[in-house]
Amino acid sequence: MFSLEAVLFFIGLLLVATFLQTYAKKFGIPFHIILILLGFAGSELATQYFSIDTGIRWDNFQGIIFYLFLPVLIFESAQKIDAEELWKGLIPILLLALPLMLIAAFITAFILYFAIGHPVGFPWITALLAGILLSATDPAAIIASLEKTKAPKRLKVLLEGESLFNDATAVVFFTLLVAVASGRESMFSWYSGTIQFLQVFFGGITVGVIVSLVAGVILLKTQLRYIHVLINFIAAYGSYIISDHIFHFSGVMAVLAAGLIFGKLKTKINDIQSRKFTEDIWGFAAYSVELLLFLFAGVSITAGMFTQQWLAMLIGIASVIVARFVIICGILSPVSRLPGIEPLPLNQQVIMTWGGVRGTVTIALALSLPLQLESWFTVQSIAYGVVLFTLLFQTTTIDIVVGRSKPS
Prior knowledge:
Na+/H+ antiporter like fold; globular
């Protein structure tokens, strides 16, 4: 558990972070980078000069991330997405979030496994776990740039929809692979693995739909804004816990389904102020979770990651870029030319390739890696390296890419 000193330590970091955010925006520095650096510097000072135990432990993180943080991130993203635009782009979004995400994960794993070249210390199951973890995209850092540069609205919807669904898919596969890699389950065959995935995946959706419909009936019968917020949180956390803990389905898929349904239900609430109030509360909750996740990542970073794992980081960065290029330009582009699907022009392919940044969910899963897992430190280092690269280079150059990719 976190000690009172550790709690005060993180409160202090949050206070400093809020002070620095204004300057980060003023000088155009990605705020997530500031958070990681702040967490790292704060941890070094706290442990070396003040003997404060920050409380960073894997057994703390697993419960916090899966039962506290992920429901907020998934539900908030799901309930705010434009359902009509999502439906229009559903085919390419589902392709990106399921088969293409798995192809990207396999390409990433393949490059990592053979480039690292250590089958004993970095076995295939670990490489595949890293591939899945690195395949969860997070376009939040570049959406503002897309809106500022007046990029096509379809791009925003495709990137947000892909992130929403592939985050959930990545968490499902990550959980299954961690169980196998940790020895809690035996290595399943393709057939049994597919059946297990489908049960966990669609079972979670079913639970989420049922819980959200029951909660939605109550939501529409009350006009009290605080009750609206409370029912939202009950739907999010209730669907997750019931699905994950009681039925052993995917809690993330349950929250995703509940969030999409509540996003539709909120349009039926006549009190606009109440709707705005609920959206603001969820926005605050998601903002706070992202803040803490990147601070946690900074606190858990060690100098050894960059001195010992720098080559693995570079391999990881190269592998995700290659994988992204293959699935967007090599697969999605020709598929988008099929009847009934809006074609994806070359300029949009370029933006989607460079806009496939990694962020919150990748960090969350990296923090939750069990220490019993062989090469957990290598996987976590690769994840941090990839996220830092996307924040430092991809998010800061997306304006240039969008500008040069505009049709003449």
